[in-house]
Design brief:
By secondary structure, the protein is α/β, with parallel strands linked by helices. It is built from 8 helices and 15 strands. α5 links the parallel β7 and β8. The longest helix is centred in the first third of the chain and has 17 residues. The mean pLDDT is 94.
Length: 362
C-alpha cells in the first residue's frame, strides 16, 4: 500500500512538472493545420530536406550518455572568468552600418536601419528548463541580464530548444518587444507564456515579412530538429535572411552541414556577414551540428563576405574543450581565405568598419 501511495504521488508530481509553463505547448488548431500542410511534414512530424538521423548507425543513446557523463573531457570550462565588455544596448549607430553585439552562445543584438533585433536570447544560469539541471553559464558571462533589454524592435527566435528559446529571458523581454519573428509553431509556446498573439509572426521556409518598412526577414531551411519535451519536430527550425536597403545578413540557427547552404547562397546571397554556429558538435551527433571546418564551408557556400562564429563561449553542451570550436574555425577560415570576425563578449562589431580578429580565448 505504501508503494502504491508513493507511486501515485510520483505520477501526480510528474504530470504537474511536465505541465509547467517552461515546457511550452505543442501547436494545435489552425497552427497545427498549417504545419501539417508543409511539404516536409511527413509521418506526423516535420523532416529535414535530407535524411537526418540523430546519431550515426550503430551508436545508441546509452553509449552517448555514458561517454557524456563518464568520459574524460578536459577543459570543458574556462579556467577563469571570461572578459565581458560592457555593451551599449540602446543607442543606434549614427552611420548606416550594421552593428552586432554577441553575448555568448547564440545570443546577439543586431542594430540596423535604426532598429534593434535581438536573436535567441538566453540569459539564464543554465541551458535547460531548470537552473539546477544542465550546463551552467561560464564565469564572467553574467554581465548582461534579460532586464536590460527594453523596447526591442524585433525579437527573433530560430527554434524552440532551451538554449535558443529560454523561458525566463523570453517572458521578460517579449512583452516589450514590438514584433516577435520565429519559425512556424513556436508561437504556441509563446502564447502559452501569455505573450500577445498580435506580436507574433511565424514563418515557414522561404516565407518573408517586411517590418516597419525597413527590414525584410526570410525564413530559410536548416538541418536540425525541435522539441521541448518528448515529442520532436512538431515546430519548425530555421535560419533567417535579414535584408535592409543596403545590407544583407545571414542569421543562422542550429544546423548540420548540407547542400541547403549552397542553395540559400544561390537564391539569396551574397551576404555581407554570415552568423553561424560553430560549437557543441560531436561525432556522436554529426548531422545536426557543424564541425568547425564545415562552418567555413557553409560560409563559402552562402557567398558570405565575412563569418561571425557563435554557439560557443557560454555553455558546455558537448564534450570538446570550451575554446576548441573558435580555435579550429579560425584556423580553417584562414586556410580557406574566409574573413572571420572574433569579437569579445559584449564587444561591438561594426560591419565594414570595425571587424575584430584578436584571439582573446587563447
Amino acid at each position: 500500500m505504501i508503494l502504491l501511495v508513493v507511486l501515485f504521488f510520483l505520477i501526480i508530481a510528474g504530470v504537474v512538472i511536465l505541465n509547467l509553463p517552461v515546457f511550452g505547448r505543442l501547436p494545435d488548431g489552425a497552427r497545427a493545420a498549417r504545419i501539417h500542410q508543409l511539404p516536409n511534414y511527413r509521418g506526423r512530424a516535420l523532416e529535414n530536406l535530407s535524411p537526418t538521423p540523430m546519431q550515426p548507425e550503430g551508436v545508441g543513446y546509452l553509449t552517448i550518455l555514458k561517454e557524456f557523463f563518464f568520459g574524460d573531457h578536459p577543459n570543458k570550462m574556462p579556467a577563469s572568468a571570461l572578459e565581458f565588455l560592457t555593451p551599449d544596448l540602446t543607442s543606434i549607430p549614427a552611420e548606416n552600418l550594421p552593428e552586432i553585439i554577441w553575448f555568448g552562445h547564440s545570443s546577439y543584438l543586431v542594430k540596423i536601419n535604426g532598429l534593434r533585433i535581438l536573436v535567441d536570447p538566453i540569459f539564464s544560469k543554465a541551458a535547460s528548463p531548470f537552473s539546477f539541471i544542465g550546463s551552467k553559464a561560464f564565469p564572467g558571462t553574467e554581465l548582461v541580464k534579460s532586464t536590460h533589454f527594453k523596447d526591442i524592435d524585433v525579437l527573433l527566435i530560430t527554434h524552440d530548444h532551451y538554449d535558443h528559446l529560454d523561458y525566463e529571458s523570453v517572458v521578460t523581454i517579449a512583452p516589450q518587444a514590438k514584433k516577435i519573428i520565429t519559425s512556424v509553431g513556436v508561437g504556441s509556446h509563446l502564447e502559452r507564456w501569455g505573450i500577445n498573439p498580435n506580436q507574433i509572426i511565424e514563418l515557414c521556409w522561404h516565407e518573408s515579412i517586411n517590418v516597419f518598412n525597413k527590414l525584410t526577414f526570410t525564413a530559410v531551411p536548416a538541418r536540425h530538429f525541435t522539441g521541448r519535451k518528448f515529442k520532436r519536430n512538431q515546430t519548425l527550425w530555421s535560419a533567417f535572411v535579414l535584408k535592409s536597403d543596403q545590407h544583407q545578413l545571414f542569421l543562422g540557427g542550429d544546423s548540420g552541414y548540407d547542400s541547403h547552404f549552397r542553395e540559400i547562397g544561390k537564391t539569396y546571397g551574397p551576404f555581407d556577414l554570415a552568423v553561424l554556429e560553430c560549437g557543441q558538435y560531436n561525432a556522436y551527433w554529426p548531422y545536426i551540428h557543424m564541425f568547425p571546418t564545415e562552418v567555413v564551408k557553409a560560409a563559402i557556400d552562402l557567398q558570405a563576405k565575412a563569418l561571425l562564429p557563435v554557439h560557443w563561449g557560454k555553455f558546455s553542451l558537448a564534450m570538446h574543450p570550451w575554446n576548441e570550436p573558435i580555435s579550429e574555425v579560425t584556423a580553417a577560415a584562414q586556410e580557406k581565405g574566409m574573413p572571420i570576425v572574433t569579437p569579445r563578449l559584449g564587444e561591438s562589431v561594426i560591419l565594414g568598419k570595425y571587424m575584430p580578429t584578436f584571439k582573446w580565448w587563447q
